[in-house]
Automatic annotation (TrEMBL):
Residues 30-306 form the Peptidase M14 domain. It comes from the Bacteria. Pfam families: DUF2817. One of its GO terms (molecular function) is zinc ion binding. This is Peptidase M14 domain-containing protein. Belongs to the peptidase M14 family. One of its GO terms (biological process) is proteolysis. It comes from Pseudoxanthomonas spadix (strain BD-a59).
Length: 306
């Protein structure tokens, strides 16, 4: 079945052009406040971290500042760690898990590591509860030279001076039921492709770098998160979202080739988290705590094995 036919925009089998993208864009409306829910929380952390304004997205009448927080006492002798959230803006716990890490846990790493945290890379996506940006582009497939996504390009410019100095980069994501009901059908329609229905894993998992898998690092994070929420099992084919499970709760992608955020640096330890917020076995608070626990476990392992 050509699932693109079921999507209300476009012609089955034909990629979208400018008219279809404009039609899609006209349907998107803000559904929550980035300023009230994210910018305010970042401002509240300003007493303890340096707030970095590294760009702005203009969507008249709205303007979305791109904000990061970094250690105030930056020490060039220390290793660096990058935490990113909200690359897909609709993935709520990626944003609020990053903020929770800063609020509750970051102080214990003071004097041990330089922290750079971008809690909400895609604020338009956050406000509109969407995977894509306002141009119907996926920011998490756009971390490459000459990126077409403003959000991705701005973050790469911010991180570029540190790209070879980072010990760790952890990118915080969610896999949601809406991936299957909305975003994968929309992707198929946009690209003029067939949508093959899939399944959503019930639980937390990690996407490691196939070129630099770091199994000890991945399993340290899985062990820590398992104390907060459940870990996704493999499906009947031994896979998670179509990729072989290489260790409990871990799959691999070629992150640099795919243009994923986790591949934007040369950090020794990298991973992408995936929380499942729609499970009846977890809560939003647990999802946020799981993301914060993943950051802590990743830092603890990386610092112990540098």
């Amino acid at each position: 079945m050509h699932q693109a036919a079921c999507y209300p925009i476009g012609t089955p089998g034909q990629p979208w052009g400018e008219a279809e993208r404009a039609q899609w864009r006209a349907l998107q409306q803000p559904r929550r406040s980035y300023r009230d829910e994210v910018v305010t929380a970042i401002d509240q952390l300003g007493a303890h971290f340096e707030v970095v304004h590294y760009g702005q997205l203009d969507d008249p009448p709205e303007r979305y500042p791109l904000l990061a927080l970094r250690s105030r006492r930056w020490d060039q002798a220390l290793p660096g760690a990058l935490v990113t959230g909200g690359v897909h803006g609709y993935e709520t716990s990626g944003v609020h898990g990053a903020l929770q890490f800063l609020r509750l846990h970051a102080e214990r790493y003071a004097g041990r590591v330089n922290l750079l945290v971008a809690p909400c890379v895609s604020p338009w996506g956050y406000a509109h509860i969407h995977r894509w940006n306002a141009d119907a582009l996926d920011p998490n497939r756009s971390f490459r030279a000459d990126s077409p996504a403003q959000e991705s390009a701005a973050l790469m410019a911010l991180v570029a001076p540190l790209a070879d100095q980072l010990l760790m980069h952890i990118d915080l994501h969610e896999t949601t039921d809406s991936d299957e009901t909305e975003f994968r059908p929309a992707l198929a329609a946009r690209d003029g492709a067939a949508h093959v229905p899939g399944s959503i894993p019930d639980g937390f998992y990690l996407v490691g770098d196939a070129a630099n898998p770091q199994p000890g690092f991945q399993q340290a994070i899985i062990a820590a998160v398992a104390r907060v929420t459940h870990i996704a099992p493999a499906d009947a084919n031994g896979q998670i979202i179509g990729s072989p499970m290489v260790a409990p709760g871990v799959i691999h992608y070629d992150v640099k080739r795919l243009g994923l955020c986790a591949g934007m640096t040369n950090a020794s330890y990298t991973t992408t988290t995936e929380v499942y917020p729609d499970s009846p076995r977890t809560t939003p608070a647990q999802c946020n705590a799981a993301q914060a626990a993943a950051v802590c476990a990743g830092l603890d392992y990386a610092l112990a094995h540098r």
